[in-house]
Specification:
Elements lengths: L26 H4 L5 E5 H4 L5 E8 L10 E2 L4 E7 L3 E4 L2 E4 L5 E4 L8 E3 L6 E8 L5 E3 L6 E5 L2 E5 L7
Antiparallel strand pairs: 1-2, 2-9, 3-10, 4-7, 4-9, 5-6, 5-8, 10-11, 11-12
Amino acid sequence: MSDDTHAPVSALASQVRPREKKTNYPERFAHKVEKREKRKLGDLFGLENIGINLTTLKPGGMSALRHAHSAQDEFIYVLEGHPILFTDKGGTELGPGMCAGFKAGTGDAHHLINRTTEDVVYLEIGDRAVGDEVTYPDDDIKAELVDGEWVFTHKDGTPY
């Protein structure tokens, strides 16, 4: 987190330095999101209750493993490009100006994939609910937010 005494008043979002660490996923899954770049806008301003990222998916990129949060609401707003949003209901093409929300606790897993030749740029916003857990129906992984850090295990609970 940023020290809010040094937080800027404003910023040009596209000029915020991309997150250095590409992903928190265990190495086994990291390659799946290697074409994703996040700029942590909320952290820049010292925001603690919500996370806001300006995210770019290069062609062939994936936003995340398909997942569902137990306690965290999420929202996305597409600025550029045409990603496919995959949920338990299947795929839906999105475009600039379109948005989607994912209510915590529903179990409806979701993620975006860029199947085009152009970049996809979108805002992702989520709260930072204490005790959040994440399920990944397509992969042998689960996550729990512990003391502000994601802890990943296999579905049977054994650590990575």
